[in-house]
Write a structure and sequence with these properties.
heterodimer; A: 0% strand; globular; B: alpha+beta; Immunoglobulin-like; 11-stranded mixed beta sheet; 5-stranded antiparallel beta sheet; 16 helices; 28% helix
Chain lengths: 474, 665
């Protein structure tokens, strides 16, 4: 016991050292001249996340014009009121957007801490439920990997996250809201989950689909093996002593207690808070845009801009080139098809993965960041960080090395192709689009393989549990 | 038609006299339509000659004559009536006015130097909500009238509504330019059609197409003003000004002499040598027809110095009479009148009235230089130029630089306010929407030092561009101290990416940003002649005296934009759709796969005996893989039943399709 405690302490120390190192690394990058020009990279700053556009919107607002006049700013009016004043404060001899950078670094750090806390909670609940099924060996194996720490460090040290943070992309704040919502749902804090969800939806619309995993998390508790394995547990419990449950803390047990039946109470509380928060956000943003055409104009400029893909400047997604090339009379059809593609997979995934709401949220986030109109590396940073939470469950994932190489290759090739096309004029748009297509393919492989690995893991659990059952029976 | 127009007019007056005198007794002065033609010639320092034709038609407000016109073009008056145009100016220009060499501080350059292509502005006399509709209709009418693609200005991405920085600014103004419009003789012909004599008689007969289109710069302009103010009855009515400004290079006759020396003799020229034609006579319908020759102030001073140096005329006062026989050059015809500007060192106008000439004696004014002279044209207060910065097709910056033209520094204080000399500069810049300007990056460098923009900007109006809807408009009123050496305004932008249909056929040539307009409201370009010399009734003479703002246009910028691949939209569509289909199909496949059951089925199938069955199952396996969502365990018996059932299903579907096809027809 002493041994494990001291081991845990050293582990904890190492974790914090790495966190602080990543912060220092970010600050060093921020102090490099002109932020390495990262803020103008198409991979980092999309029309929705670019801080430069936000500064333009703030400038227009200062001139008592609508921040949405002109097609520059398309973000939330609340973010504008918070970050806008920071874009104009400058210090002598310091980088231009120092305060914004500091805000983004802090957001990144909070993200990592929340991911870690959520990961620890998930892991604890998971090992408890495994133990309650009597799969002690599996549970022990799962405890070896501190998945929360892994996920937090993967998030912090992911080059995508670093680039997005140093490149002054507001996606760190959007990610913060998504993670806040997931964390709130994992720990059963319905108001926090509702706040995160409402803010994330307000800022970038796509996290709206996360309402299903969040409800499942609140209703059924965190990730657990498939529900149909649990009836066996009762039988198992009769034969086995209840010693396995001793290591589980009381609150986790409470959370686990609800997993067999869907409990409506926290969900109703969550829905109530959603109503409260969203009316609050609507009123606040209504006040912000009162003189400039009201909420209708706001929705047209933010959600309308996201849904109709008006800006055709290149990014790492595929939609910009598709809509630059597609014939005008097919435009609305394909808009419906592509956005429908996100919605279409929601139900099948929710049916199949309803016992693992956190993983379901991860899959939704990957799909949304693959199909969204203006993807940036900040979105990839989020799902790659969350992937670390399931480090144990998807250890058997196929093509993981191939995927890793693919991500590295695309992130090296894509700037090269962009440079050839835009700056040198020797390349062609198709070259850059090819890297975007490859990136989309890798993301698709990642989704499919992770889902399949998770399902295989469930199969393995079922097999183990039935073997155990047979042992007990015989 | 043999009746001379004057007598017909008198007849007409006689006939209508009681009615006219009773109805419009007050405005009897303006009760007639007028037409006048003028030509201004001016030698320029860089061995070129400026020829500026000026035709002016006036018509009283339509109610006096009904819908009939004698001289005034009916098309234009209909335009005014139908679209409620209060003022309008349309110009077709080819070439760029060189403000440094050809002057920027005289009436000709500030009101006739126009940006390349087509420029149109119009002020409407309608409620502000309807202005756009009227503008759109007007562009279409003008497009038909002048055989030009002015109708492109209909689209809201091409025009804007400046309010503070454009001189005739008022609420109902719309302004648009087409920098890439090619201007040629098909635009000149309809323009000439508006003149009562066309180009058959009078000064317009000089317009020989080859010589005009060989010129370095030509700008054909049409300006319409409607004044119906009750206070100014005399000037009420429609005034149509048509001007053509041409810069011609005279043929050098004696090319050999003084070639190597620094001071070359200016090329001598005559009307016939620069136009290839002579004036046969006036247009009989014109009330006045005169030719002016303008000598710049600086040139006159130089000539005076020359005279002093050669000491032919000692210390005599140079009266108006002596001016005609100048020492530096010689005119072939003695001018009818000479006007000299009141201020010292100012320009001189020689006026010739065109009479009827016979075939043998035609009006062919010629100017022969006798001594080499070097002079400079009056320069604008600040020389404005605009340029692009940055490389690559992603972003860039645009800068407008204003430079002191006189090296000595210090302006003639035109509008001094309590000893503090201020120089006001108005800047109007319109950028198309695909140049996405970040207005918050506006920087101002005064005397090469960065200054806060708010210190110098008196007024600012920005209406940012909206994608595919409206262009970006920036209007600035800047106030600089008079000892300004240079000022640079810069603003950054991102280059937009367009849909493939939005690119013009020559997409790689780049896109034009229309000229910015720099105006100096404190400075007035206008010649000031003493009152007694205003004997001349020529409208151009009064036009030259008119006080107008000094105005200059900057260069048109060519911005290359990135192009997508135009050749393979199908490839992009199919590949993208394939990727999405791949995602959808394989994810669904992963979700619905049941490993144990599949294994069991495989074992079952392996146990099956019989060749026929194996073939059948192989055939049906393909169908089943797609359709077997049903969890029933596949056994030997079921698989043999499956195939006829499946065939039945296919038949039913085919039947439905046939029936549907039949009935939908």
């Amino acid at each position: 016991m002493e041994m494990t405690k001291s081991l845990g302490k050293t582990k904890l120390r190492w974790f914090w050292i790495w966190v602080i190192a990543s912060l220092v690394f970010r600050l060093i990058l921020i102090y490099l001249p002109k932020n390495l020009n990262l803020s103008s990279r198409p991979e980092v700053s999309t029309p929705l996340t670019s801080l430069r556009r936000l500064a333009e919107g703030y400038w227009l607002k200062q001139l008592s014009m609508s921040p949405y006049a002109g097609s520059m700013y398309h973000g939330s009016p609340l973010l504008l009121t918070l970050l806008g004043p920071l874009t104009v404060t400058r210090f002598e001899g310091q980088p231009d957007h120092l305060l914004c950078s500091v805000v983004l670094v802090i957001a990144d750090m909070i993200n990592a801490i929340l991911i870690r806390a959520a990961g620890q909670r998930l892991q604890m609940a998971y090992s408890c439920s495994l133990k309650s099924m009597g799969l002690h060996q599996v549970s022990k194996n799962s405890e070896i990997l501190p998945s929360g720490d892994i996920a937090a460090l993967v998030y912090l040290w992911n080059p995508f996250t670093i680039v997005a943070c140093v490149g002054l992309s507001t996606s760190a704040i959007e990610n913060l809201m998504v993670i806040l919502s997931l964390y709130g749902a994992c720990t059963g804090l319905a108001p926090l989950a509702a706040f995160g969800w409402v803010m994330a939806t307000h800022m970038s619309l796509y996290p709206a689909i996360l309402i299903i995993p969040v409800i499942l998390l609140l209703g059924c508790g965190p990730d657990a093996p498939p529900g149909k394995l649990f009836p066996q547990r009762k039988y198992d419990k009769v034969g086995n002593s209840s010693s396995s449950d001793s290591s589980c803390p009381e609150e986790v047990k409470n959370l686990l207690g609800v997993q067999s039946v869907f409990s409506w109470k926290p969900v109703l509380v969550f829905l109530f808070w959603i109503l409260l928060w969203s009316s609050y956000v609507l009123v606040l943003s209504g006040i912000c845009v009162r003189q400039y055409g009201g909420l209708l104009e706001l929705f047209k400029r933010t959600y309308g801009f996201i849904l109709t893909v008006q800006d055709l400047s290149p990014n790492i997604g595929v939609l910009w080139y598709f809509f630059a090339e597609v014939f005008d009379f097919f435009r609305s059809f394909f808009l419906i098809v592509f956005h429908g593609n996100i919605l279409l997979m929601i139900v099948p995934l929710a049916l199949r993965l309803n016992h693992r709401p956190c993983f379901l949220a991860f899959v939704y986030i990957v799909i949304a960041s693959m199909m969204k109109s203006y993807p940036s590396v900040g979105d990839s940073a989020l799902y790659l960080g969350l992937l670390g939470l399931f480090a144990y469950e998807i250890t058997d994932m196929h093509f993981s090395f191939f995927l890793f190489c693919g991500y590295v290759g695309v992130s090296l090739l894509s700037p090269v192709m962009h440079n050839l096309w835009i700056w040198r004029g020797t390349g062609n748009a198709n070259f850059y689009f090819a890297t975007a297509i490859a990136y989309a393919c890798f993301q698709i492989v990642l989704v499919i393989e992770s889902v399949s690995a998770m399902l295989n893991h469930d199969r393995m659990l079922a097999k183990e549990s039935s073997a155990k059952l047979q042992d007990v029976k015989s | 038609m043999d009746v001379p127009p004057k007598s017909s007019f008198i007849l007409f007056l006689l006939f209508w006299f009681p009615i006219i005198s009773s109805l419009i007794a007050v405005r009897s002065d303006f009760g007639e339509e007028e037409f006048s033609e003028d030509l201004l010639l001016k030698p320029l320092p860089d061995r070129k000659v400026l020829a500026h034709f000026h035709f002016q038609s006036r018509a009283p407000l339509s109610d006096s004559f009904g819908r009939h016109h004698h001289l005034f073009p009916k098309a234009i008056s209909q335009l005014v009536q139908k679209f409620n145009v209060k003022a309008m100016e349309l110009s077709f220009t080819q070439g760029r006015w060189n403000y440094e060499r050809w002057g920027g501080f005289d009436p000709i350059s500030s009101s006739n130097a126009k940006p390349p292509g087509v420029e149109l502005w119009a002020v409407f006399n309608v409620p502000p909500s309807q202005v756009d509709t009227y503008w759109k209709n007007l562009t279409h009418s003008l497009s038909g009238l002048f055989c030009a693609s002015i109708n492109f200005l209909e689209s809201s991405t091409f025009y804007s509504a400046p309010e503070i920085a454009f001189p005739p600014a008022s609420g109902n103004l719309r302004y648009g330019t087409l920098p890439r419009e090619a201007v040629c003789t098909e635009n000149l012909t309809p323009w000439l059609k508006l003149l009562p004599c066309r180009d058959k008689a009078g000064l317009s007969s000089l317009m020989n197409r080859p010589s005009i289109y060989r010129s370095f710069y030509h700008s054909q302009r049409l300006r319409l003003t409607l004044s119906n103010s009750a206070a100014d009855e005399l000037n009420s009515g429609i005034v149509l000004e048509q001007t053509l400004t041409v810069l011609l290079q005279p043929q050098i006759v004696g090319a050999g002499m003084n070639y190597g020396s620094e001071k070359k003799l200016q090329p001598s020229w005559s009307l016939s040598s620069i136009f290839g034609r002579k004036v046969n006579g006036r247009c009989v319908l014109a009330t006045s027809s005169s030719v002016f020759l303008q000598i710049d102030g600086d040139l006159f001073t130089q000539l005076e110095n020359l005279q002093k140096n050669t000491a032919i005329y000692a210390a005599d006062d140079i009266g108006a009479e002596e001016l005609t026989s100048n020492h530096g050059f010689e005119l072939s015809i003695k001018p009818d009148r000479v006007h000299k500007e009141v201020e010292k060192g100012s320009s001189i106008l020689y006026e010739y009235e065109i009479k009827e000439y016979t075939d043998t004696e035609q009006f062919d004014l010629s100017l022969t230089w006798k001594h080499p002279v070097v002079w400079s044209s009056p320069l604008p207060p600040l020389h404005a130029s605009r340029f692009l910065m940055g490389s690559g097709n992603e972003r860039g910056a645009m800068a407008i630089s204003l430079k002191q033209t006189e090296p000595t520094g210090g302006f003639v204080c035109a509008n001094c306010v309590e000893e503090r000399c201020e120089l006001q500069v108005n800047v109007l810049q319109i950028v198309p929407w695909y140049i996405k300007v970040y207005y918050h990056t506006l920087q101002l460098f005064v005397n090469e030092q960065r200054q806060a923009v708010t210190d110098f900007v008196e007024k600012m109006r920005v209406s940012p561009s909206e994608d595919k809807v409206s262009p970006g408009l920036m209007e600035l009123v800047l106030k600089f101290p008079c000892d300004l050496k240079s000022a640079v305004l810069s603003v950054e932008f991102d280059k937009g990416f367009l849909h493939i249909d939005e690119y013009p056929p020559d997409a790689n040539q780049g896109f034009d940003i229309p000229s910015a307009i720099i105006s100096f409201p404190n400075f007035h370009a206008g010649l000031q002649f003493p009152d007694n010399s205003s004997l001349s009734k020529s409208p151009m003479f009064s036009k030259l005296q008119e006080k107008s703002h000094v105005l200059s246009y900057t260069e048109v910028l060519l911005v290359p934009l990135t192009t997508p691949d135009f050749s393979m939209p199908y490839n992009v569509i199919t590949i993208t759709c394939t990727v999405f289909a791949l995602y959808f199909g394989s994810l669904l496949n992963v979700l619905r796969r049941r490993v144990e059951e599949e294994k069991k089925r495989l074992i079952d199938e392996a146990n099956k005996k019989g060749l026929l069955r194996r073939v059948l199952t192989k055939l049906t396996a393909k169908f089943r893989r797609r359709s077997s969502e049903d969890p029933q365990p596949p056994s030997a018996s079921s698989s043999s039943i499956m195939s006829p059932r499946l065939i039945l299903k296919v038949l039913i579907v085919a039947g439905i399709a046939v029936v549907w096809q039949y009935y939908s027809r």
